Amino acid sequence: MFAPLDQIGRAEAVTARLVDAITLGLLADSEQLPSEAELAAQFGVSTVTVREALVALRQQGLVETRRGRGGGSFVKTPANPSTASWRERLRTVSLSELRDVGDHYLAIAGAAAKLAAERSSPEDIERLELATEDIRTATGAEASRAERQFHLEVAAAAQSPRLTREEVQLQSERGGLLWLPLEPHGTRENAYAEHRAIAAAIAQGDGELARKLTEEHILDAIDRLADVHLDLLAP
Predict the structure, then answer these.
(1) Number of domains into which the chain is organized
(2) Phi-psi region at 159: left, alpha or beta (left = phi > 0; alpha = psi -120 to 50)
(3) Which CATH number goes with the domain that contains 68?
(4) For the whole model, what pTM was predicted?
(5) Among residues 176, 178, 121, 129, which one has the least CA distance to residue 150?
(6) What is residue 207's predicted lDDT score, i.e. its pLDDT?
(7) Phi, psi of 74, rounded to the nearest 5 degrees
(8) I want to staple 80 with a disulfide (CB 3.0 to 4.6 A). Which of 112, 121, 141, 210 is the partner?
(9) What residues make up the domain containing 35?
(10) How far is CA 17 from CA 39, 58, 81, 173, in A?
């Protein structure tokens, strides 16, 4: 998340990186950000650039600055968004675009699940189990966020920085669309069972099974989106 940027000195790039981290739940609500100097060193940019990015984040309501002892910049997690805007986005995309997004995500998430089974640490497995439990109890927009968090944890467990960056980018660009809390989605118990099976395969070190279950899970999501897309276009 704090890896140096490819293009040095771009406040927009710092802002985008932090917006992704906040909206995807990588940074928790009320969590204090590193100091401006620390962020500048981690991103490989100037403190002026970081300051500009923090101003943009404050304007978006994603960060608040507190003065005095214990002060600094603190995360403000956005309220659960309505699915209305994503429904409209789903209406405008084509079926071929949906399939293309699915193909891309299959490649990333399937590979991440396989590598996670081969490389994950006990701490990774514990985080996956916690993310799975979040899916069991979440509803509505929170269910969408929990789904995205689960797949981010799988990517992190793969121990591949490039795969993790790809997952973060896909989630920031398409995650809200891929994991819309739309019906029919099956019961909460079914969704929990799918993720429980993926997490179990990873914990058991069965890479091929983890990949297979993940790919089936994503294909089911794409098929469901395609059905809803056609319903939205129906007169």
Answers:
(1) 2
(2) left
(3) 1.10.10.10
(4) 0.71
(5) 129
(6) 97
(7) -125, 145
(8) 141
(9) 10-75
(10) 12, 15, 20, 12
